[in-house]
Amino acid sequence: AMIENSTIVNMIGKNIVKRAVEKGYVHPEAILDIEGVPHAQIVKL
Predict the structure, then answer these.
(1) What is the pTM (predicted TM-score) of this model?
(2) Can you tell me whether residue 34 is helix, strand or coil?
(3) What is the pLDDT of residues 1-45, one digit of tens each?
(4) How far is it, in rounded angstroms, from Cα 26 to Cα 37?
(5) What pLDDT is stored for residue 22 in this prediction?
């Protein structure tokens, strides 16, 4: 998958952020809510 091959991922929107949590890529506490829109990032070091 594209996420697995990326070093930085920015996700904006309910559907993609929800899916990332379901897949275990993002911890629910790491989600930011900006004006009602969920945002999440993945950074691999």
Answers:
(1) 0.86
(2) strand
(3) 788 899 999 999 999 999 999 999 999 999 999 999 999 999 999
(4) 16
(5) 97
Res 1: pLDDT: 74
Helix, strand, or coil here: 27?
Answer: coil
* Other C-beta atoms lying within 10 Å of the C-beta of residue 17: 22
HEC string for 1-45: CHHHHCCEEEEECHHHHHHHHHCCCCCHHHCEEECCEEEEEEECC
- C-alpha closest to that of 42 among 1, 16, 11: 11
Q: Give me 14's structure tokens.
A: 């309910």
* 4 φ, ψ (degrees, to nearest 5): -65, -25
Place of tokens 């929800």: 18
